[in-house]
């Protein structure tokens, strides 16, 4: 494994750019079977005395089944790979081996699948999940419901950062 563990306090990424602009891959499963999907919503921070990441996953994502079954997942960040992430974010792993199709490779880090091509990987243990609810948006935020024409409300996953790994 050509990754080296670092302290989260030494992370050099700006989450707004790394997640919102450059995107990330959310990956879960095991050595036998794993799946991944592109995500551009989420964040990094501190909650319940833990360093955490949070992601928002719609119920129909195949990756969600692996996240729920395992209770852990990874976030992989890249330099580039936007075209590949475009495919991984529009094709479902239910329908084809999309990881092979884009020519990328899984690697296990601390028992969790992540991407060999990543510049940074966060290994995460889920602490908390909840579903976004339409009636919880405040009156001034009703516009946000435009994201849910099909009522496929996200599940939010708050996960403890077990380890941060950078490419050596
Ligand atoms: C740039 C981009 C960002 C995305 N962000 C999210 C996200 O934050 N949450 C989500 O549920 N889906 C998101 N998606 C959609 C999933 O990546 C997409 O539906 C994917 O094909 C699901 O794959 P799966 O069924 O194999 O899990 C995003 C897609 C793209 C292209």
CATH class: Mainly Beta
Q: Tell me about the largest β-sheet.
A: 8 strands, antiparallel
End-to-end separation in angstroms reads 9 Å
**Relative helix content:** 10-25%
- What is the name of the CATH architecture? Roll
* Topology-level CATH name: Pnp Oxidase, Chain A
CATH homology-level superfamily: Electron Transport, Fmn-binding Protein, Chain A
The structure class reads alpha+beta
**Backbone shape:** globular
Give a brief description:
This protein has helices at residues 15-21, 62-70, 82-88, 98-101, and strands spanning 3-6, 24-29, 34-39, 42-47, 50-57, 72-77, 106-109, 112-115, 120-131, 155-167. The protein is α+β, with helices and mostly antiparallel strands.
Features of the shown structure:
single chain, about 170 residues, alpha+beta, Pnp Oxidase, Chain A, 8-stranded antiparallel sheet, two-stranded antiparallel ribbon, 4 helices, 10 strands, binds flavin mononucleotide
Q: Can you put this structure into words, describing what you see?
A:
This protein has 168 residues and is of the alpha+beta class. The protein has a single domain, classed as Electron Transport, Fmn-binding Protein, Chain A (Pnp Oxidase, Chain A, Roll). Helices cover 16% and strands 41% of the residues. It has four helices and ten strands, in the order E-H-E-E-E-E-H-E-H-H-E-E-E-E. It has helices at residues 15-21, 62-70, 82-88, 98-101; strands at 3-6, 24-29, 34-39, 42-47, 50-57, 72-77, 106-109, 112-115, 120-131, 155-167. The strands form two sheets. Strands 1, 2, 3, 4, 5, 6, 9 and 10 form an eight-stranded antiparallel β-sheet that branches. The protein has a two-stranded antiparallel ribbon with strand order 7-8. The relative contact order is 0.24. The model has no long low-confidence stretch (mean pLDDT 97). The structure holds flavin mononucleotide. Residues 23, 35, 37-41, 56-58, 61-63, 86, 89-94 line the site of flavin mononucleotide (FMN).
């Amino acid at each position: 494994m050509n990754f080296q563990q670092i302290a989260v306090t030494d992370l050099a990424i700006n989450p707004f750019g790394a997640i919102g602009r450059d995107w990330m891959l959310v990956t879960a499963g095991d050595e036998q079977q794993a799946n991944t999907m592109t995500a551009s919503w989420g964040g990094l921070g501190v909650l319940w005395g833990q360093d955490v990441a949070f992601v928002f996953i719609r119920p129909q994502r195949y990756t969600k089944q692996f996240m729920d079954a395992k209770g852990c997942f990874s976030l992989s960040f890249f330099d580039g790979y936007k075209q590949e992430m475009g495919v991984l974010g529009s094709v479902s792993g239910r329908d084809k081996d999309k990881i092979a199709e884009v020519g990328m490779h899984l690697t296990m880090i601390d028992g969790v699948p992540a991407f060999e091509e990543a510049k940074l990987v966060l290994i995460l243990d889920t602490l908390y999940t909840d579903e976004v609810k339409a009636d919880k948006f405040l009156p001034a935020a009703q516009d946000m419901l435009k994201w849910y024409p099909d009522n496929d409300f996200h599940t939010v996953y708050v996960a403890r950062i077990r380890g941060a790994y950078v490419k050596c």
